[in-house]
Amino acid sequence: MSVAAQAADRQLVGLIVDEDSATGLLLAGVGEVSPDGSKNFFIVGSGTPVAEIEEHFTTLTQTRKDIGILLINQHLAEKIRPIVDKYAQAFPALLEIPSKDHPYDPSKDSVLKRVQKLFGE
């Protein structure tokens, strides 16, 4: 299947973010609840188990075929780093973003590491 065919139905942005990030992104209109009750976002609190974060990551990256981009707070990606580092699909594109309390650290970003490796840096 061509990349264009894979991307055709992927019109949503998925989120795995903390509450502050979710508030801004949902107010911007990113959130969607399907008629079956499934959401394209998962809000992680301080007591959220790592297994639940992994489960939602898998759902948004493998089960959902309408997600084109998945935004995940970098500090949450760190909690599930082995699964994030193994992720190599073109869709949804995975982007690690900063949060209010956790600044972005390029040295931890798995996508940036792959790009640097490709360019021999």
Automatic annotation (TrEMBL):
This is V-type proton ATPase subunit F. It comes from Tilletiopsis washingtonensis. The keyword rRNA processing does not apply. PANTHER family: V-TYPE PROTON ATPASE SUBUNIT F, VACUOLAR ATP SYNTHASE SUBUNIT F. Its main location: membrane. Pfam families: ATP-synt_F. The keyword Membrane applies. InterPro entries: ATPase_V1-cplx_f_g_su, ATPase_V1-cplx_fsu_euk, ATPase_V1_fsu_sf. Belongs to the V-ATPase F subunit family. It is a peripheral membrane protein. GO terms for cellular component: fungal-type vacuole membrane; proton-transporting V-type ATPase, V1 domain. Keywords: Hydrogen ion transport, Ion transport, Membrane, Transport, Vacuole.
